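Comment thread on ticket #2218

A.B. wrote:
> Attaching the input chain for the structure job we discussed in standup.
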Amino acid sequence: MAPSASDAAAKASDVAAKAAQAVAGTSSSAKDFKKEAGAARVLGAGCAGIAELMVFHPVDTTAKRLMSNHGKVSISQLNSVIFRDHANASVPKRFLSLFPGLGYAAAYKILQRVYKYGGQPYARDYLAKNHGDSFDRAFGKGNGKAIMHATAGSLIGIGEIVILPLDVLKIKRQTNPEAFRGRGLFKIIADEGFGLYRGWGWTAARNAPGSFALFGGSAAAKEYFYKLKDYNAATWGQNFVASIAGASASLLVSAPLDVVKTRIQNRNFENPESGFRIVSNMVKHEGMTSFFKGLTPKLLMTGPKLVFSFWLAQTLIPAFNKLM
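C.D. wrote:
> Ran it. Output below, let me know if you need it in another format.
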């Protein structure tokens, strides 16, 4: 029997409703993704890391020195805290003093960005292929996809401790150059060994929620604000707004543990201090607000650094993928 006009109209209405729902993004599934070429991921993330290093290394040094300073800092003390031995030098020399450990910083920053921004898509692909339905069932379509992106970021963030020694050396160069005492890179590695991984647990504890918030905040902006079914289809402007959302959430969530991590890493090699001892001393001598030291410069300066590199990576990876 041929379908009646009312049945045909009902089917047409149902198809139209589903199409409208898809356009609105509410049917975005965790198992739906477009895989980028591996070379595109490496190139996009690597270019983002290089650009970030060139523009923001002095900002990072300033934030690290403020976080490492014990006690309250008045406006009159800022110059000596930030520029240290070069506080009374000329402006060019003071500026150049904000580039200590640039070699370590270059190696660490580029490897970190390639690993994090280029590695998160691999973790996302694995979760989408093997557990996409589980995310959809647990959180609903759309929600599941955003949380899956955040979870992939968190897993990659924990694994970032592999390159922790480069971060340790970079921070010591920025905040405690006396720790080197004329020793070169290979001499330090031979002397310290696994001591360069000191604070790895605190680093993982800081990276897990921080990376979850970074990738989750960005995915949420694309999912709910822009209603994107394919996150790679975001324009540069949409990626910029999504990067602001992710970076802001990441910095706020990870700030307290970031202060502890920095203080563990900037100690002299022969005079280490446990994270729990540092936390205890901070609470006892500096108060709870000490866990948010450096947050303002991080939000004002390091925040844009993270936004800048994350935005470039999210924009360049799909662009390189199209070229390939």
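A.B. wrote:
> Thanks. Noting for the ticket: The two ends are 52 Å apart (CA to CA).
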